[in-house]
Specification:
The chain has about 300 residues and is α/β, with parallel strands linked by helices. It has one domain: 3-Layer(aba) Sandwich (Rossmann fold), CATH 3.40.50.1820. It is built from 8 helices and 8 strands. Strands 1-2-4-3-5-6-7-8 form an 8-stranded mixed sheet, sandwiched between helices. α5 packs across α6. It is globular.
């Protein structure tokens, strides 16, 4: 067993903490069924549904420092150990779309796990108003807590005989895209990241003291950024700003900007979905992980 493996597994919380279950004050004890209310109605005509044939898939519990959090895990039903991909949700939490993304990775030969990183703050799937969801749940999830929960999730996957701790990747969408950048600067055992339209700059807050532009020099793994040229919330000049900063810092960062794509162009269950950029981005994502998470 190499040092990277030992380091990753050492991130797991002590067993006695895990046995306590949820600490008092945890707001969410299980994953959402279906889709988040804030994204209704669903664009059924473009929605992709991935079956579980040949997979082991379903809800699991991840031991964290103060209890356990729910997560969705999917992987091939036989074989392994598999490279690990942490899947970080949008602001809507681990609803059906994120579960489906995990199954897509599993079909490609990965152990994919999406932890519910808002479990302490509330159930994001129950909110019908995005502004209220951001104010009451998302903004209250400290980056430090999120990093620790992702470490615990990686350790949980590594402790399984099916997860290969030497091949750890992360991908995330929107809110999860920003988290992907931060985690690539946080976790030394990470081998690759793919950030889908994650915010790159912003004002610091007590819970979110830094943004990707602030941690470029600390990046520890190659990151692929997939962005939309018509994303009204993430100006292209901020993409160029981070790209230039990464170049100066000598970091392996690559961006693909789809000129006509809006924000959330990969979200096939929403009107923002754009089939061409989404399919191209997915293939680039798989190629990135194949390159950096190879045996």
């Amino acid at each position: 067993m190499d040092n990277d493996t030992l380091d990753l597994r050492s991130l797991a919380p002590r067993v006695e903490l895990a046995r306590r279950g949820f600490a008092q004050g945890f707001a969410m004890t299980g994953l959402a069924a279906g889709f988040a209310l804030a994204v209704q109605p669903i664009a059924a005509q473009t929605m992709i549904t991935t079956d579980t044939a040949g997979l082991e898939a379903g809800e699991v519990r991840i031991p964290v420092a103060d209890g356990t959090i729910p997560a969705y895990r999917a992987m091939p039903a036989s074989g392994g150990p598999f490279p690990i991909v942490l899947v970080v949700s949008e602001i809507f939490g681990v609803h059906e779309h994120i579960k489906d993304v995990c199954r897509r990775f599993a079909k490609a030969g990965y152990l994919a796990v999406a932890p519910e990183l808002f479990a302490r703050q509330g159930d994001p799937s129950k909110y019908t108003d995005i502004a209220t969801l951001i104010r009451e749940v998302v903004s209250k999830a400290p980056d430090a807590q999120v990093m620790a929960d992702l470490d615990a999730t990686a350790a949980w996957a590594a402790a399984s005989s099916k997860g290969d701790p030497a091949r750890l990747g992360i991908t995330g969408f929107c809110w999860g895209g920003r988290i992907t950048w931060l985690y690539a600067a946080h976790q030394p055992n990470l081998k690759a990241g793919v950030a889908w339209y994650g915010r790159l700059v912003g004002e610091p807050t007590p819970n979110q003291p830094k943004h990707p532009i602030d941690v470029v020099e600390a990046l520890k793994a190659p990151v692929l950024g997939l962005y939309g040229g018509k994303d009204q919330g993430i100006p292209v000049d901020t993409v160029e700003m981070l790209q230039e900063a990464a170049k100066k810092a000598g970091k392996a960062v690559e961006f693909v900007v789809y000129p006509d794509a809006p924000h959330a162009f990969h979200a096939d269950y929403r009107p923002s979905y754009r089939e061409g950029p989404a399919k191209d981005g997915w293939q680039r994502c798989l190629a990135w992980f194949a390159k950096y998470l190879a045996s």
